[in-house]
């Protein structure tokens, strides 16, 4: 990993470690197994805060909306292919963790393999008695059918009792359901899960509260993972997005500060997809806006990384999210080509007269021009004179 990216990786690691330490010392972190989430006074401790709902949960979308316009308006063609590869590889790793890994996403598989269960919480306003529910569940195989239960519902009397008794700080009853419901995140309906609703409709609602015609409607929350090792997906995606944006924006930052690379100008060659349209002013404006917005987004990602480390997940889950994000960024760096694959693109690195004289272009030497990179007409003349003497 290159030095600037190592600096950003160190900053992200420091943020996560400090946030985790502060959270542990002050008991601020939320156990993501709690269902429903308790209300908390700190704005960023609430899952419903606007930055979490509309930015972090859509982090890869926002990162892409900045990254791609900035990439396609780059004035440096030699950087286009490597940075495009970085985005494609990063997107593939993001999809593997969140969406698909030979079926379910890697994150879901880790939760289940570490003992997590997909559950639904039976709403407390149903007024259910814990003991009576457990007694009824013992009768489910006889009333519903053992084969039907085993093929469609991963809940048994013991799993229901264990889940209910292990739920911290709440009085919900939890019903284990097939893990596919957590993977799809689809709402349970009588049509999608008829056997589950058959069990729910037979629950012993207290007659003193409800008559048969007044039973509450079976509007239940979406299934969620309970327990297991829930790697902090937010830390993972924020770390990966921050490093990807840093890689993309760094050359522009350097140019704006006057310490960056000098882009070689070849008048006969289009330098970016937008430049092919012949509108340099449009390209420059889009590139500048994307840089400003990307910088602001990067600052937001760093802040939300700190908020996630402070208010959510246990220390192990946050650290594993950090390690996964850093490892993914390292693999992206390894698999990304470091130079342009186009032989017509010139170097973007400024060269001085003093540095040119000993520089050899091996490909040029094979062509028969000795590979010497000329810095001036005088140097060229001197070289030609030397060649005449040798010959």
Automatic annotation (TrEMBL):
<protein>
    <submittedName>
        <fullName>Inositol phospholipid synthesis and fat-storage-inducing TM-domain-containing protein</fullName>
    </submittedName>
</protein>
<dbReference type="InterPro" id="IPR019388">
    <property type="entry name" value="FIT"/>
</dbReference>
<dbReference type="Pfam" id="PF10261">
    <property type="entry name" value="FIT"/>
</dbReference>
<keyword id="KW-0378">Hydrolase</keyword>
<feature type="transmembrane region" description="Helical">
    <location>
        <begin position="286"/>
        <end position="312"/>
    </location>
</feature>
<feature type="region of interest" description="Disordered">
    <location>
        <begin position="342"/>
        <end position="391"/>
    </location>
</feature>
<dbReference type="GO" id="GO:0034389">
    <property type="term" value="P:lipid droplet organization"/>
</dbReference>
<keyword id="KW-0472">Membrane</keyword>
<keyword id="KW-0256">Endoplasmic reticulum</keyword>
<keyword id="KW-0443">Lipid metabolism</keyword>
<keyword id="KW-0812">Transmembrane</keyword>
<dbReference type="GO" id="GO:0010945">
    <property type="term" value="F:coenzyme A diphosphatase activity"/>
</dbReference>
<dbReference type="GO" id="GO:0019915">
    <property type="term" value="P:lipid storage"/>
</dbReference>
<dbReference type="GO" id="GO:0008654">
    <property type="term" value="P:phospholipid biosynthetic process"/>
</dbReference>
<keyword id="KW-0732">Signal</keyword>
<keyword id="KW-1133">Transmembrane helix</keyword>
<feature type="transmembrane region" description="Helical">
    <location>
        <begin position="84"/>
        <end position="103"/>
    </location>
</feature>
<dbReference type="GO" id="GO:0005789">
    <property type="term" value="C:endoplasmic reticulum membrane"/>
</dbReference>
<feature type="signal peptide">
    <location>
        <begin position="1"/>
        <end position="21"/>
    </location>
</feature>
